[in-house]
Amino acid sequence: MVGESDLSRIGISLPENLLNKFDDIIGKRGYSSRSEGIRDAIRSYITYYEWMNDVSGERQGVITMVYDHDHRGLMEAITEIQHSNRQIVQSTIHSHVSDERCLEVILVRGQGEQLKQLAERLMSLKGVESVKLTTIKVD
Protein backbone atom coordinates (compact mmCIF):
# COMPACT_ATOMS: atom_id res chain seq x y z
CA MET A 1 0.00 0.00 0.00
CA VAL A 2 1.31 3.43 -0.92
CA GLY A 3 1.40 5.83 2.02
CA GLU A 4 1.62 9.57 2.14
CA SER A 5 5.35 9.29 2.81
CA ASP A 6 5.88 7.72 -0.65
CA LEU A 7 6.26 10.85 -2.76
CA SER A 8 5.72 11.27 -6.49
CA ARG A 9 6.84 14.26 -8.50
CA ILE A 10 4.39 15.94 -10.85
CA GLY A 11 4.52 18.99 -13.08
CA ILE A 12 1.62 21.36 -13.55
CA SER A 13 0.99 24.42 -15.68
CA LEU A 14 -0.86 27.35 -14.14
CA PRO A 15 -1.74 30.83 -15.31
CA GLU A 16 0.61 33.33 -13.69
CA ASN A 17 -2.17 35.20 -11.87
CA LEU A 18 -3.41 31.94 -10.27
CA LEU A 19 0.10 31.01 -9.16
CA ASN A 20 0.65 34.51 -7.74
CA LYS A 21 -2.57 34.29 -5.72
CA PHE A 22 -1.59 30.82 -4.49
CA ASP A 23 1.88 32.05 -3.49
CA ASP A 24 0.30 34.92 -1.54
CA ILE A 25 -1.96 32.50 0.32
CA ILE A 26 0.75 29.99 1.20
CA GLY A 27 2.91 32.89 2.44
CA LYS A 28 0.11 34.21 4.65
CA ARG A 29 -0.67 30.74 5.98
CA GLY A 30 2.97 30.03 6.78
CA TYR A 31 3.63 27.07 4.50
CA SER A 32 7.30 26.30 4.03
CA SER A 33 6.90 25.52 0.33
CA ARG A 34 4.50 25.42 -2.60
CA SER A 35 4.53 21.63 -2.36
CA GLU A 36 3.25 21.76 1.20
CA GLY A 37 0.49 24.15 0.16
CA ILE A 38 -0.46 22.03 -2.84
CA ARG A 39 -0.57 18.86 -0.72
CA ASP A 40 -2.86 20.60 1.78
CA ALA A 41 -5.08 21.96 -1.02
CA ILE A 42 -5.37 18.50 -2.60
CA ARG A 43 -6.23 16.91 0.77
CA SER A 44 -8.90 19.55 1.29
CA TYR A 45 -10.28 18.99 -2.22
CA ILE A 46 -10.44 15.22 -1.69
CA THR A 47 -12.13 15.62 1.71
CA TYR A 48 -14.69 18.04 0.26
CA TYR A 49 -15.34 15.73 -2.71
CA GLU A 50 -15.86 12.71 -0.45
CA TRP A 51 -18.09 14.72 1.89
CA MET A 52 -20.14 16.03 -1.07
CA ASN A 53 -20.67 12.49 -2.32
CA ASP A 54 -21.93 11.31 1.08
CA VAL A 55 -25.35 12.92 0.80
CA SER A 56 -27.62 9.90 1.15
CA GLY A 57 -31.04 10.03 2.76
CA GLU A 58 -33.17 12.99 3.76
CA ARG A 59 -31.07 16.16 4.02
CA GLN A 60 -31.59 19.83 4.78
CA GLY A 61 -29.11 22.38 3.57
CA VAL A 62 -28.10 25.46 1.68
CA ILE A 63 -26.72 26.09 -1.75
CA THR A 64 -24.64 29.26 -1.93
CA MET A 65 -23.79 30.65 -5.31
CA VAL A 66 -22.05 33.69 -6.75
CA TYR A 67 -22.75 34.71 -10.31
CA ASP A 68 -22.57 37.48 -12.89
CA HIS A 69 -26.08 38.87 -13.06
CA ASP A 70 -25.32 40.62 -16.36
CA HIS A 71 -24.62 37.29 -18.10
CA ARG A 72 -27.32 36.98 -20.76
CA GLY A 73 -30.15 34.65 -19.75
CA LEU A 74 -28.50 33.50 -16.52
CA MET A 75 -31.02 34.87 -14.03
CA GLU A 76 -33.88 33.36 -16.04
CA ALA A 77 -32.09 29.98 -16.13
CA ILE A 78 -31.51 30.06 -12.36
CA THR A 79 -35.16 30.92 -11.73
CA GLU A 80 -36.34 28.16 -14.08
CA ILE A 81 -34.13 25.57 -12.36
CA GLN A 82 -35.44 26.62 -8.96
CA HIS A 83 -39.06 26.48 -10.14
CA SER A 84 -38.56 23.05 -11.69
CA ASN A 85 -37.21 21.88 -8.31
CA ARG A 86 -39.85 23.56 -6.12
CA GLN A 87 -40.40 20.31 -4.21
CA ILE A 88 -36.91 20.70 -2.68
CA VAL A 89 -36.30 24.48 -2.87
CA GLN A 90 -37.78 26.01 0.28
CA SER A 91 -36.60 29.60 0.06
CA THR A 92 -34.01 31.88 -1.55
CA ILE A 93 -32.16 35.02 -0.53
CA HIS A 94 -30.71 37.19 -3.26
CA SER A 95 -28.10 39.87 -2.54
CA HIS A 96 -26.42 42.34 -4.90
CA VAL A 97 -22.72 42.21 -4.04
CA SER A 98 -21.61 44.69 -6.71
CA ASP A 99 -22.80 46.11 -10.02
CA GLU A 100 -21.99 42.78 -11.71
CA ARG A 101 -22.07 40.09 -9.04
CA CYS A 102 -24.87 38.55 -7.02
CA LEU A 103 -24.89 36.15 -4.09
CA GLU A 104 -27.79 33.76 -3.81
CA VAL A 105 -28.53 31.45 -0.89
CA ILE A 106 -31.02 28.67 -1.56
CA LEU A 107 -32.53 26.75 1.36
CA VAL A 108 -33.19 23.15 0.29
CA ARG A 109 -34.63 19.97 1.76
CA GLY A 110 -34.97 16.55 0.16
CA GLN A 111 -33.11 13.42 -0.76
CA GLY A 112 -29.37 14.04 -0.76
CA GLU A 113 -28.92 12.95 -4.35
CA GLN A 114 -31.61 15.42 -5.49
CA LEU A 115 -29.86 18.25 -3.66
CA LYS A 116 -26.52 17.32 -5.18
CA GLN A 117 -28.04 17.18 -8.69
CA LEU A 118 -29.59 20.62 -8.19
CA ALA A 119 -26.25 22.10 -7.08
CA GLU A 120 -24.45 20.50 -10.02
CA ARG A 121 -27.07 21.79 -12.46
CA LEU A 122 -26.62 25.34 -11.13
CA MET A 123 -22.83 24.91 -11.21
CA SER A 124 -22.92 24.05 -14.91
CA LEU A 125 -24.48 27.36 -15.96
CA LYS A 126 -22.25 29.83 -17.80
CA GLY A 127 -21.76 32.98 -15.72
CA VAL A 128 -21.87 31.14 -12.38
CA GLU A 129 -18.61 31.71 -10.51
CA SER A 130 -19.10 29.34 -7.59
CA VAL A 131 -21.63 26.97 -6.06
CA LYS A 132 -21.33 25.25 -2.71
CA LEU A 133 -23.75 22.73 -1.23
CA THR A 134 -23.77 22.25 2.53
CA THR A 135 -26.18 19.71 4.04
CA ILE A 136 -27.01 17.99 7.28
CA LYS A 137 -28.88 14.74 7.81
CA VAL A 138 -32.51 15.14 8.89
CA ASP A 139 -33.21 13.09 12.03
Features:
alpha+beta, Alpha-Beta Plaits, Arc Repressor Mutant, globular, 4-stranded antiparallel β-sheet, 139 residues, 4 strands
Question: What is this entry, summarized?
Answer:
With 139 residues, the chain is an alpha+beta fold.
Q: Please name the fourth-level CATH homologous superfamily of the largest domain.
A: ACT-like. Chain A, domain 2
CATH fold-type name of the largest domain: Alpha-Beta Plaits
Number of strands: 4
Residue stretches low in confidence (pLDDT < 50, at least 5 long) are none
Percent of sequence in beta strands: 25-35%
- In terms of quaternary structure, the protein is single chain
Number of helices: 4
Domain module count: 2
- Can you tell me the overall shape? globular
* CATH class (first level) name of the largest domain: Alpha Beta
- Percentage of residues assigned to helices: 40-55%
* CATH architecture name of the largest domain: 2-Layer Sandwich
Rounded Rg = 18 Å
The average pLDDT score comes to: 91
What strand order characterises the main sheet?
2-3-1-4
Pairing-aware structural class of the strands and helices? alpha+beta
Distance between the termini: 38 Å
Domain Transcription factor NikR nickel binding C-terminal: 61-136
Binding site for Ni(2+): 83, 94, 96, 102
GO molecular function, one term: DNA binding
Domain Ribbon-helix-helix protein CopG: 9-48
Explained architecture:
- Its cofactor is Ni(2+).
- Keywords: DNA-binding, Metal-binding, Nickel, Transcription, Transcription regulation.
- Strands 2-3-1-4 form a four-stranded antiparallel β-sheet, with helices on one face.
- It is globular and about 50 Å long.
- The mean pLDDT is 91.
- The protein is α+β, with helices and mostly antiparallel strands.
- A hairpin with a 4-residue loop joins strand 2 and strand 3.
- It folds into two domains: 38 residues, Arc Repressor Mutant, CATH 1.10.1220; 80 residues, Alpha-Beta Plaits, CATH 3.30.70.
- The longest helix has 20 residues.
